[in-house]
Amino acid sequence: AQIRYSIPEELTRGAFVGNIAKDLGTDVAKLAAANLQVLSDSDSQYFSVNVNTGIIMVSERIDREQLCGQNPRCFLHLKLAIENPVEFYRIEVEILDINDNPPEFPSDEVSLRIYELASLGARFPIQPAQDPDVGTNTLQTYHLSANENFNLNVKARTDGGKFPELVLERALDRELRAFHHLVLTAEDGGSPPKSSKTHITIQVLDANDNHPVFDRPSYGARLVENSPLGTLVVKLNATDVDEGPNGDIRYSLSSHNSAALRQIFAIDEQTGEIRVQGNLDFEEATVYEIEVEAKDMGSPTMEEHCSVVVEITDVNDNAPEVILTSFSSSLSEDAPPGTVVAVIHVRDRDSGDQGKVQCHVSPDLPFQLRKDYEHQYSLLTSTRLDREHVAYYNVTVSASDLGSPPLSRHTVLPIALADVNDNAPQFEQASYEVLVAENNPVGSVLVTVSAADPDSEQNSCLSYSILRAGGTDPGLDPTRYLSIHPTNGQVSAKLPFDYEQTTYLQFHVEVSDGGSPALRNRTLVHVFIVDQNDNAPRVHFPRAGEDSASQFRISPSTAPPALITKVVAIDADSGRNAWLSYNLVEATDPGLFSVALRSGEIRITRALQETDPSAHELLVVVRDAGDPPLSTAVTLVVLVEEKGPEALQGSEARATDGGGLPTITLYLIVSLVLISTVSLVGLAALGVRCL
């Protein structure tokens, strides 16, 4: 026979299973005498029989899930063996499931990575929970915590398994919510039901669906011109809510910017710092508008633009500029005051007071500035000009701005004065005195007259000519004796001078310049002829032929110092050249006669004796004082004889000639004095002039 019992699992030891004696209808004592044994089909003895009571009890813990797993029904089979007679009874114990196990997820934490652009309705399976219980005690349902994006779908299989799935019902936005935390609850059908939970963490994977965004649509900055290189202009800040390469931003200057602007500003692609890399010049641009773009590194790339307005503040870094609108570097010296020399335009590229310019010139110059209107001046003459006084001016025009500190620029205008013929030639001397030795060679230069004309070029080209001086002898034409070089003023002799014919000559030298009309001037030249010893003394008495001697007769009784005769000579020269001396060179008896050195008187020096010859020949030499001296010799014959007709004639002749001697001597002395006086006066005047 087979007996079936049903007990729930997990009964405690000693728990009642059934009364075998009662169920078999056997007396308990009989069972004990029959040596009742319990034999199990399994290795474990889950049950035991109390032979005294016939009650089957649980002897070990019974776990239905361990014994039977997921089988809907679980049985343990026992065999009862009774001896005398041997009988076997089969006992089947059904182990009933109790809800002693909650559903269990494989992990308490589940991580999912879902692309943020996943399509709506996309399903994402979750590993199911396991519940070893069976029947209603096993897993029955899942519950998903409330959320905006996912719903739960439980997929049932034919074997009764239930698999949960997350279904995307609303689009994900990583930038709005990068992580979603859900709780999935698995619940069985026990009473009370058991459940377990797993935490689902959903990481939304980024898609490049957001472009970078600047924190401001435009930026402003103010810089001083000439800021040093590397000066920070502004630091841009753009953000991209995407992540990874999709949110990695690179800054750059837009292609809309000009090449010139790119040379002035540079941007750091990592930090967004815009710095100065070129020269900032307010005068070239007062405002720079920089277009900047920020790009992420996603694929495809997304970008955003902004503008940076940089205002440049002016500093006084530009000196004024002087521009000659009109300028004449040559100015006539007779230009009247107020003549415009130059028209000057000034400008300063700075702004405000720094761009206002003032001009001036030195007050020491004969020029002044007149302000015509803003930024334009005229340079005028302020006084009369004289090229001969100052021929060249460097006029410095100084232009200064009103900056602090002020900047200035100096422009030099070279102005040359053009000559006009306003100056007559001037001789170096008002008159010239020239001493010329007679017998001068033809063509020799007697004097050089020199004149100067402070004018220039053609106006200073001089020409010399000789004119007759007023009050001179009309018959004495200076051009007959003299000529003058027309350009260098050298006066030359055309004929040799003869002092004995001409002792003095004066004439005018006229100089004229090359201007139109020509201006002239004159100087007076005094030419003094200096005597040369070119004339030998000439004997006027006694007269004799070339080969004859003059004879004189004296009485033997002539007593000393009787005058025998007098030699009279005249020298056409003057001065020392006409100073004559008489010398007795030869005589028959040198001691008998003597000759006066200066007067030429011949006297007897002693009484005649009978032994003296009757005829005495005397050689008298007349010599002047020139250098070298010139001389003339005269031979006299003195006859000693008694008075007779010839002696009387000699006496008469001597008396006649003696009467004329004082007059001739007087003339010679007067002439010598006059000539000496004129010479001394001329030499004194020449010395004073030279001093």
Using the coordinates above, name the CATH class of the largest domain: Mainly Beta
* Major sheet summary line: 4 strands, mixed
Q: Hey, roughly how much beta strand do the residues contain?
A: 35-45%
Number of strands: 49
Low-confidence stretches: 644-661
Find the structural class using helix and strand composition. mainly beta
Strand order of the largest sheet: 1-7-6-3
C-alpha geometry: rod-shaped
Rounded to an integer, what's the Rg over CA atoms?
80 Å
Mean pLDDT: 86
Membrane topology: Single-pass type I membrane protein
Main location: membrane
InterPro entries: Cadherin-like_dom, Cadherin-like_sf, Cadherin_CS, Cadherin_N, Protocadherin/Cadherin-CA
Pfam families: Cadherin, Cadherin_2
Structure explained in plain terms:
- By secondary structure, the chain is mostly beta strands.
- It folds into 6 domains: 3-96, Sandwich (Immunoglobulin-like), CATH 2.60.40.60; 109-205, Immunoglobulin-like (Sandwich), CATH 2.60.40.60; 213-313, Sandwich (Immunoglobulin-like), CATH 2.60.40; 321-418, Cadherins (Immunoglobulin-like, Sandwich); 426-530, Cadherins (Immunoglobulin-like, Sandwich), CATH 2.60.40.60; 538-640, Cadherins (Immunoglobulin-like), CATH 2.60.40.60.
- Helices cover 10% and strands 43% of the residues.
- The strands form 15 sheets. A 4-stranded mixed β-sheet has the order 1-7-6-3.
- Strand 30 (392-401) and strand 31 form a beta hairpin.
- The protein starts with a strand and ends with a helix.
